[in-house]
Amino acid sequence: MSADWLLAGSRLSIVVKGRRKMAAPRVSAAVRLAILTLKHASSHSRCSFAVSRVLYSTVSDLNEPTFDKILVANRGEIACRIIKTCKKMGIKTVAIHSDVDSNAVHVKMADEASCVGPAPTNKSYLNLDAIMETIQKTGAQAVHPGYGFLSENKEFARRLADEGVTFIGPDTHAIQAMGDKIESKLIAKKAKVNTIPGYDGVVKDADEAVKIAREIGYPVMIKASAGGGGKGMRIAWDDDETREGFRFSSQEAASSFGDDRLLIEKFIDNPRHIEIQILGDKHGNALWLNERECSIQRRNQKVVEEAPSTFLDPETRRAMGEQAVALAKAVNYSSAGTVEFLVDSKKNFYFLEMNTRLQVEHPVTECITGLDLVQEMIRVAKGYQLCHKQADIPINGWAIECRVYAEDPYRSFGLPSIGRLSQYEEPLHMPNVRIDSGIQEGSDITIYYDPMISKLVTYGGNRAEALQRMQEALDNYVIRGVTHNIPLLREVIIHPQFVKGDITTNFLPEVYPDGFKGHMLSHSEHKELLATAGSIYVAALLRAQRFLENSTRIPAATQEQKSWELSVQLDDGVHSVTVSRSGSSYNVEVDGKTLNVTSEWNLASPLLPVTIDDTQRIVQCLSRDAAGNMKIQYLGTVYNVQVLTKLAAELNKYMLDKETDDTSNILISPMPGSVVTIGVAPGDRVTEGQEVCVIEAMKMQNSLAAAKSGKVMKVHCNPGDTVGEGDILIEFE
């Protein structure tokens, strides 16, 4: 007889053939052992779907009738996340996909799958007719929209209702009321929720935008009324920026949401972005599930989130939670939702917006409360009451989430990168680590969709534990084939300001005013890296020598070398390094200082654990070539190192340097994307800084300007063209 164990607070239940019985007062030694095991495993499994059979700490009655089949109207990690909970609940799933996603992970996980169109989102994941046809064809009783795409589309929810299909989310009234930034602000005011001063109507044109901005007082925030996710938002500090912001925001809003209406409100400088997770049912009950700190952002999009916040005291937390619930009840909200606030340095908080869907960063809330929010959404959609009271909602420990993106963090804190994941390993072997992803080795990151690779979540009994675990998880994360933002993520979580909790939404531009440059090595770290590079070089030589010795065709030298004098170039400096071998350990002299470097030296593994004078590190040697060039990922950042013997280094001085191409007369696309507008034609004269082209990547528009004054010689692209990173767009004389 098989049984699954479910830990519910301090109560142990046994599920046998779908029925739950309370464990008898007298328990066997085997059961006592199981209880002990669960106690030690609970904190580990709270944050991981992949590790054990222990589920979330609050479970519903397994005899509750539920849906037989749910269609997941999304892709990527959130589709996989929803499917996992459906499997746990015994619900069959239907995946939808575009033609380029036919081999995606979420398609393989689902019980059924259907193609709904070609790659562009408006022809597939936003294709209402194709999705409705799939629902009818598969007999799905309900639809979970995830986040993005159709998750806040009232027309989709209405069409589902007309067909008798359940939308796993709030009703159309709540979606419309909260999805419209203008209407939601008016409702919030009526519900006595603190709001930001601003203009409550629709801004008609750029001239009116300037007039309103002057009345409010600069700086102002220009926002898409139907927007979210950082799209259709611009900060303006003067009239010119208001006109430009109006143009870009309206274009992005139309592209992303099919609605170009804008509003303007006072921009609160240096705030924190703190949001409250709420959960409501169809019986008038609503709860707030504590807060999430989401202040680390770039281009108004979140990068690192955590729960709880270091900033809130119990009184402020309660006040924010109660206002969030008041807003939810004002629109009879029934599902999971998020009320976002801006919080100033004096703990004054102001309503920003309400997202009527599951939030990207929901895992950190699940970690500290023990609730499965997807399961709660499904239960509410089926008509059940919430199982919990406000007093039941705990804050257990601390959780931190890093959004791992296929982006180049050295360019505007993250311009999109595309490519194929040639090697991919998640650090799931580590305790208290959860990864929500929808990709695998061999997956393609394309220009058509969000470049998120995964959400990496770590959990600890306190914030210090969660941060330490995050450092280790980032170091153990293997991603090859695309540029990624792990260097930035790792630097953020170890920065003294972040560690102290002294953060605002301006953290990145304030800490890195000249842009992100990677980890700045301390004197000791510099020597560690040099010693590690020298040791890897020697270990590779010895491995090659062993191969030759085992070969029957090629004779090898028999004299065993014990010491190597090397020249190691790191950045612009050249260093003398002497490596002496003693078993699997190397004594490495770097500029007069000796370090001991020990490892198993398994160079075939993507992860290389090394111990340097009792300091343990995980390094990744991304590449090596015959010229001694190495790319080594150390403390999150990739460093270019060249290791040569003394003789080779001396001869290398006579090698000619490759001349760099002169690109001053061409405009190159800094990212893959599509051309929105071309503002010049051959023969036009341009001035330095003049906008000449707009590229849209991942639904964000980017203005490209002329690097110097001159005359346009040739335009290589047209509006609507797809371009790759490095493609020539415009040539100048």
Automatic annotation (TrEMBL):
Single Gene Ontology BP annotation: lipid catabolic process
Residues covered by the ATP-grasp domain: 185-382
Metabolic or biological pathway, per its Swiss-Prot or TrEMBL entry: Metabolic intermediate metabolism; propanoyl-CoA degradation; succinyl-CoA from propanoyl-CoA: step 1/3; Amino-acid degradation; L-leucine degradation; (S)-3-hydroxy-3-methylglutaryl-CoA from 3-isovaleryl-CoA: step 2/3
Catalytic activities: propanoyl-CoA + hydrogencarbonate + ATP = (S)-methylmalonyl-CoA + ADP + phosphate + H(+); butanoyl-CoA + hydrogencarbonate + ATP = (2S)-ethylmalonyl-CoA + ADP + phosphate + H(+); 3-methylbut-2-enoyl-CoA + hydrogencarbonate + ATP = 3-methyl-(2E)-glutaconyl-CoA + ADP + phosphate + H(+)
InterPro entries xrefs: ATP-grasp (IPR011761), ATP_grasp_subdomain_1 (IPR013815), BC-like_N (IPR005481), Biotin_BS (IPR001882), Biotin_carboxylase_complex (IPR050856), Biotin_carboxylation_dom (IPR011764), Biotin_COase_C (IPR005482), Biotin_lipoyl (IPR000089)
Alphabetical UniProt keywords: ATP-binding, Biotin, Ligase, Lipid degradation, Lipid metabolism, Magnesium, Manganese, Metal-binding, Mitochondrion, Nucleotide-binding, Transit peptide
Documented EC number(s): 6.4.1.3, 6.4.1.4
Needed co-factor(s): biotin
Entry-linked Pfam families: Biotin_carb_C, Biotin_carb_N, Biotin_lipoyl, CPSase_L_D2, PCC_BT
Location of the Biotin carboxylation domain: 66-513
Compartment(s) of residence: Mitochondrion matrix
GO cellular component: mitochondrial matrix
Source species, domain of life: Eukaryota
Subunit structure: Probably a dodecamer composed of six biotin-containing alpha subunits (MCCC1) and six beta (MCCC2) subunits. Interacts (via the biotin carboxylation domain) with SIRT4.
NCBIfam families: PRK08591.1
Protein name: Methylcrotonoyl-CoA carboxylase subunit alpha, mitochondrial
Organism: Chiloscyllium punctatum (Brownbanded bambooshark)
